[in-house]
Every structure is written in structure tokens, then in C-alpha cells.
Input
Amino acid sequence: MKNNIIDEYKKEKPIYQRVAEKLQILINELLRENSIHIHQISCRIKEEDSLSNKISLKEDKYKRLTDITDIVGIRIITYLDSDVDLVADMIKKEFNVDTANSIDKRKLDNDVFGYRSLHFVASFSDERCKLTEFKVIKDKKFEIQIRSILQHAWAEIEHDLGYKSSISVPDDFIRGFNRLSALLETADIEFDRLKKSLYSYEHTLPKLIKERPNDIEINQASITSYAKNNPLNKEAIQKIVSIRQCRINYKAYTNELLFNSLSYLNIKTIGDLERTAISVKEKYIQFIEEVHINDADIISGTNITTPIFYLCYYIALSRDCLKELADVSNKTFSRKEIRLYNKAFNKINEITPSK
Output
């Protein structure tokens, strides 16, 4: 019986290789379409030796090749435990899931430590198998493993140590394993909690900024909210778009350069930022216009935080401290950039003399 299965495997291996190829491409596409960001995805085909060992362990269970459902296996490693559920919902929607042979190994007894992962046995959906490229592989089953990066860390370390269950671990070490398992599970829970808290904070920021901007410190979330919603920042963005005929990246670009620049200029809160921008409103917008009209070639990508960088440069020029700003923010200006910014600043202040 075993030899028959191995012979069938050798004959069918090219088809299983095609299953693996199509499966990995499809899952990557589905993850992108569903905006699910993962850490890693990997796919493998069970080798002949591994298959032979599997059959030997349970010869009474495996009578034919189709009884073995993990010849092709794909592993999806997510960042968070909650992402495991997002991926699982996607798999259930897009594939035919063999519920009887699938198992959620995250559901452990309270006194059990060890491997936690979600395993699906599945095949391509009936609708997808109507496509010519899927017809030849429509009856092939495969295993999909989904787990968080911390669950993956446990599995890898457990495998390296060589212990698969509490039964094989000496009593003296069981408490240690339990502590580690609890710590990793707690970390998974806490990362999810932090993500939800950050999401909630980010969605309340527009209201908080409107009501009490002086209480909102400068950070990535607050700068992003300001850049997306502040009327003056929007005006500056539209000025850049009209000159360069470019698209704006609405993902805020924030880094140490921006935060260090704002800090050096004593802009500590969103209220400080709003007042600073308003105090030089006309000149600041003209400065952006002059810079882009004179030499757009030296300007890199444009996103919603770009005007804030220019505001910092303009304020630094007005205080005659652009070099110092560059030093504290680790920004290296080219000679061409310095000439461009100085030329724009001088022209604006000739057009609009200080009172």
C-alpha cells in the first residue's frame, strides 16, 4: 500500500508543484486585495522521505494519496493574533475548507502549554476551478497554517529544543515552559490591545486637535492628523500639485528629521504648529511656490507632510539658522538646495517687505 502511494506521489508531483505555485500567488493577491499586512508567507511540497515516514506512522489511515491532505502546505505568519482571524475569514470565503480535517490549535486547555496555530485543510473554490488554469488541480487538497509571529517563535524554539508536548518534558521544566507560553500569549494580547488603542486615538485626534490643540503633543499620529485635516496644509499641498502636476501620497512621511526640526524651532504641540503656520501664512505659501517653480527637479516625493518640512525651512531661514537646523536634524542640504531656498526666501521678502 505504501509503495503504491509513493508511486502515485511521484506521478502526481508536477501537479502538486503547480498547486503550490498557484496557491502562493493567489493568497498573496488576496492579502493585497483585502489590505491584510503579514510578516511572511512560505510554501512547501512534502518530500518523498517525509511522506514515507508519515505513511509509516499511520498505515491504517492512509490507503491512497488523496487521503494525505498536507502534501502541499502554506504557512502565513501574521504580526498580530487578531490578524490570524482576518486571514482565516479570507480563507473561508475564498476556498473550499474541509472543516472536518481543519483544527484551531490556538484553543488549548488552561493547564496546557505549547504550539498554537490555526490549520485549514482546503481546496480551490468551485468558482475558481471553472478557470482553465485551475481545472487540472481542482481536486487537490492542501494545508494552510496561520499563526502570529510570536506563535511562530514558540513553534520554532520548541522544535529546536525537541519537545513537542508536556508529556515529553521533565516535570522540573514544565513550569518554565508554562511561564514562557503565558508570556508569549500575554504579549500577543497586549500588542492587539495597543493596536486597538492607537486606532482609537488616531480616530479621535481630529476632534481633539480642534478642541484643544495646545494639549496635543507632536508625534507621528498627531502630525498625520494635522497634515490630513488642516486647511492651510491642504492649501500648500494643492499649490504643489498645481505647479508640479503630481499626485500626492496621502500616507504621511514622518521621521526624526521632521520631529527634530520642529523641536529645534520650539514647536512642541499642534497648537504651536498651527500658530507658526498662520503667522507666516502668505510668505510660507509663496516660499513653497518659488521653490517648486524655480527647480522642481531637486524635490523628491511629495506627500501630505511635505508642506511642514517647508514651513520648518522657511522659519529657519527667517531666523538665520538653517545650518543649525540641518545639524540638529541630521539633514544634509546640497549647495543647490541651499541656493534655491535662499533665493526663494529673499525674493518673497522683497515682494512682501517686513513691516
Observations:
- The mean pLDDT is 88.
- Residues 227 and 304 are 6 Å apart (CA to CA).
- The chain has two domains: 2-186, 213-351.
